[in-house]
User: Fold DUF2721 domain-containing protein from Limnovirga soli.
Amino acid sequence: MEISINTPALLFPAISLIMLAYTNRFLALASRVRNLHEKYNRETNNIIIHGQIKSLKYRLKLIKNMQFLGVASFLLAIISMYTIYINQMQWAHLFFALSIISFVLSLIISLLEIIQSTKALELELSDIEGLEDPTIVEYLKKKFDRD
Assistant:
């Protein structure tokens, strides 16, 4: 397969947008960490706060890896463009493939972070009674029993 200099350039908007989303996640997480840290210092031995802080530490690692792979993908796409420019097509293919792999890995880690984020929100709500999620069957029974 032959690629042109425009092929790796197609990744630039996607990578830029995903990096912006990752940065927004990081900033929101940083704000949450600061708030929980302050709350943790005031209320010792709160198991929910402790669980949230543990989750946040893991999520920060995930976001760091997401951002690293996103930047690596961007740099590899640029190197791929350069190798196309100097007519080194074997290297261009290799760097382009590595760029796509880095981007995919970044997205997979992003999915893991979303799953962890959902668990953290469930932990946040765990101390409120009556908010248990019904199963789909229970939800449908309730829905049709009312009619």
Q: What stands out?
A: Residues 7-145 form one domain. The helical segments are 6-9, 11-42, 47-85, 89-125, 136-145. The two ends are 60 Å apart (CA to CA). The longest helix spans residues 47-85.
